Amino acid sequence: MRGSLTHEFSGPTDPIADVHWDHEHAHSRKGFFTDTSICIGCKACEVACKEWNRNPQDGDLQLLDSSYDNTGSLGANTWRHVAFIEQSQDRIEQARESGRALVSLGMPQVGPPAARAGAPVTSAPGTSAPGAGSGGGCGGSCGCASGADPAAEAHAGSQSGCGSCGTGSGRVTEAQAMSAIDAAMAGQSDLDVAPPDTPEFRWLMSSDVCKHCTHAGCLDVCPTGALFRTEFGTVVVQADVCNGCGTCVAGCPFGVIERRDDGTISPPDGHAEKPKVDQEIPNPRTANKCTLCYDRLVEGQTPACAQTCPTTSIKFGDHDDMVSKAHARVEQLHAQGMSEARLYGANDNDGVGGTGSVFLLLDEPEVYGLPPDPHVPTRDLPTMFKRAGIAAAGMLAASAVAFLGGRR
Amino acid sequence: MANSDCIVIQGSNMAECHPVGFQWVSEAKARGAKVIHIDPRFTRTTAVADKHVPIRAGTDIVLLGALINYAITNELWFKEYVSAYTNAPMIINEKFKDTEDLEGLFSGFDSETGAYDMATWAYEMEDDGTSQAGGERGQGDGSADEGDAEGHGASSGESHGSGGPPIGSGRPKRDETLQHPRSVFQILKRHYARYTPQLVEETCGISPADFEYLAKTITENSNRDRTTCFAYAVGWTQHSQGAQFIRTAAILQLLLGNMGRPGGGIMALRGHATIQGSTDIPTLFNLLPGYLPMPKVGTHDTFQQWVDAVGTKEQKGFWADADVYAVNLLKAWWGDAATKDNDWAFDYLPRLSGAHGTYQTAMGMLRDEVDGYFLLGQNPAVGSANGRMQRMAMSHLKWLVVRDFSLIESATWWKDGPEIETGELVTEDIDTEVFFLPAANHTEKAGSFTQTQRMVQWRHQAVKPPEDARSELQFMFELGVKIREKLAGSTDWRDRPLLDLTWDYPVDEEGDPDPVSVLAEINGRFESGPDAGKPLSSYTQMKADGSTSGGCWIYTGVYADGVNQAARRVPGKDQDEIASQWAWAWPANRRILYNRASADPEGRPWSERKKLIWWDAEAGKWTGPDVPDFPADRAPGAQPEPGAGGPAALAGDDPFIMQADGKGWLFAPNGMVDGPLPTHYEPPESHVGNPLYAQQNSPSRVMFAREDNLYAPGAGEPGGDVYPYVFTTYRLTEHHTAGGMSRTLPYLSELQPEMFCEISPELAELTGVEPYGWATIVSPRAAIEVRALVTERMKPLKVRGRTVHQIGLPYHWGVGSEAVVSGDSANDLLGLVLDPNTQIQEAKSNACAMVPGRRPRGPELLDMIDKYRSEAGITLATGHTRITVPDEQSGTLPPGVDPSAGESFHWPSAGAAEAEEEEAAVEHEAQAAQDARTGASGAQPDGGPNGKSPHGTGTAGHETSEED
Lengths: 408, 964
Prior knowledge:
heterodimer; A: Alpha-Beta Plaits; 12% strand; B: alpha/beta; Dimethylsulfoxide Reductase, domain 2; six-stranded mixed β-sheet; 25 helices; 31 strands; 21% helix; globular; oxidoreductase (chain B); Asp_de-COase-like_dom_sf (chain B); Formate_DH_Act (chain B)
């Protein structure tokens, strides 16, 4: 019994099988791979998502004071959100350092920081090789997002992997990754593999979306059964079942799901006479989030955001395929000297069992407003049950002692 | 572009403004290409580029000229290509004088008219030939254009279509060694000798290291094995020298051998749906379909004069058949009424009496010369430069028809426009009757889009238009039917052109004409003979005897075999990379123009990696995955018979088949009205002195010295520091031009809800403007308020000891109450100074002041604008000095302007505006001359893989700044 609980509430698993979809209906698990290194910030994903899902406008029609981002965050009405982050050289250098630390697992490096910054990444395989098996065990290649994070390492110790990268699970072994890099570099010998000079400035853009976690906090805590695991392994709210209790909002480690209000839009300051936008608010007072376009998937179509993305920054497909594409891409970027590249959500040993939507980031997750070490609240259920059981037993014992003692 | 090894994006914010097309840049990058973005701002394009090179707006010729100099000095130009395919060996006649000799003017300048006589730029001919430059047949027809006081000098700009201007008869003299001092190559070399990295640093604000990176990357990626591509948009065209910016890039690309080859060329990015189509089958005043020029009063009085001006039977290339294209157009329009006896109804065509661009038309309204105005898909109250002039002009109309999806600002200025607030207009006093007619959008009607790469793609109707909304086709068709009904039975000869039109399109049950029938008419058909009624499959089937008709010769083939070729959608995975079965590209479904240049003079590909078409000696024809852009059986070594004309006169190594000499033009012996070689002048309101010449600004620019078009003092004039900053306008991904299709939609409005400016932290500190706080920006024309986006993406540049602060302003917002979001319009700040080739306004480099806080409301706003003008001492003459070469100092002011008029201008009181309109107008009496468009110069910008129309640059200007 306990083993079954552990299996379902944390760690690697097949979420479709876990909910007993029969063979006739089950599909392969679907997901996104969002490669932020080629995002141009056009926000077509946001618009296509809103159009397809008929989500209401939710901005207050004022600048958010956040570069070109006037959306802010994911929410009940916004299921894709493009973040814009302006960074100067210092921060870029830090991102490279932290990425390099992920790759090399903090092995001592030769030379002053400036020299290291300019050193070709060809040294990475050499320096990282001794690191194999140390720490969380993710090895050198994946560039996982939280491996270098002490807190994450602590979690990694209590769980079975390093943090979030996924290589610890053996999906891509270090040796495979190294040989892939070598192959890449051998095959592209005319390519400039020296790391580019650190630019003075960069502008990161990243399209965020519901993670469709392997262990979904929102689903696990839903008291009405409104949330369910689909035959594609995604997590979807049934608006006609949801009673709007909001329990799921606290259950999501990413702050994705939200309860939809009545959609009233307040006019911006100084434009008091602005007409209120007349719009229909579907499913008011229920929880809402990305469905990974469930209604399109059942028709064999691609989700609206991935369909519209002009640069293929948003890729859609079988989850396994997305994860291996993500690994291949991060290796390619490392080979080009972009040590700041790392994956997010591609480690099925992380706190949510890996995510259905994986990301390639160019800085630490916090920079994009993503939690560095997300974990599903139910992950701790077995421990909690155990502790509660011990406590209950203790109390029973104490009571018994008290009564017994009272008799005396 | 996917085949490029290096992509230079300059004068364009491609990722933001052409995100779908940008996928090919992404693809090239994934294949290993370097992407360099040269732009005043760090934009979303820069974010995914390998390198950003910030540049001072308006100095692109210096940078590109220095690249030309770099390639020549370091022997990095493509010698075999240049010798064989360009006019580098041609000898220019000895009367030619360069700007280097004349302190910034070329020979032939007339300081009275501000126009050039191009005769001295012409080739020197062998034996008995005559040079033609500036001659009577040029569409510009030179001095024949008496510009009237309002800039009515004709825009000869794009009227050459894909053909170059005539060069006269005979063979130009050549020096194959390129050593002759008057050879084009040597002239070019001397002209750009002073364009050094040092000049780039002190003019553009670009460091020598950045220049070195740029020069190395481009030249290393331009050779037999590799190609470099340039991409531009209105960041090049919207300058008073816009066409010359593009010419400079064309020269560079020819020198590096990048034209007509896969991954090479110059991409003229068109801003929105079918802007390319609207130049092919134009909405421009001076063009007819297929780049035939509008005939002009006085010079094109007969059919023969007209077609000879386009191309004579004696000249080389496909423009020699201009008469064929013209007859087919007239037959398509007037059918049986067009006969040989009446010169194919040539007299039914209106004649141009001068320039009738959008700005000249607005000025005509202010003079009460225009009664009515149709606005279809245009929002000039927001999208046109000098927005106040546009709105004031519309208040003079008797009637105004606005066809749009929603009540755009051009439909509501009479009740809530900025001039109502300031009191300059009073609703009750406006006599204009405004009609609003709902329009069907692109999903509600079928038709075609012609995009950047000349590709005609069909779109189908997805849903019926709501309520009273109609397609443009139906609207125009019914309007024609109604007018013809009213004129029925008229015996007035003036009504014949309308009554004789072929106006017989089949309609559906809703009364909507079948757009395929229009496509068939454009394609053309046999009118008589055994195939009568059948569609033509190629323009080479066209005859000048009335037996065929076709509405736009370059589109012939789009309806070949009676099949809508534009609707083909064979997926990319089912065909090769050329994808010739996806839609249809004009001409003849060719994907890369001038692709003869992709092979060497002997007909072999320059390299295996870059092969496209080649000569198959056994079969005796050109072959390859693309459609050869050359006579299919013309052998590489072929020489024309003496006396041959037209396509038959093309030698086997004349790849630029529309040019009168078959070569790409490094030097334009005719056609560019403002000079045969691009040369740097400062933008009109620049604070920086021209480092090259005493001549500060382009002497040929079109100016309008009017009280509603005042200019800031430039370098050397007192008062320039009152407007110390440079502003440049642009678009955002989230909005569509003047906002009619985006600010009315909640999903788009919420993504960019408020008008803002982008400024550097340094400028914010200097002016006291707070991040995301309000700021007011003042130009001599207007003052607007914006939120301030303070960002390191904007960098001050050091130029000649001066720190230049540039301010970025998106122009999508307008003042009104109907849209979801509104705001002040950046275009109100702009004045009108136009490129003489294209009539496009200078919108990318203008002077302004900036202060923290919101702007005053009501009449106080006018006081504020006036205060700045007074402080700067602005008069009508300010900024309108044509010649600043020392020895010509006298007589430089425009006629009618008193040079001693030191008194600054004061805003007219409300209601008095009308009386003020008769100021002196300086006009560019465009000596027009020939074509202006970039293509005229041989180095057509269309050489790219997705090569663009020859007239790429043209459209934008003619319309408005909202277009591109």
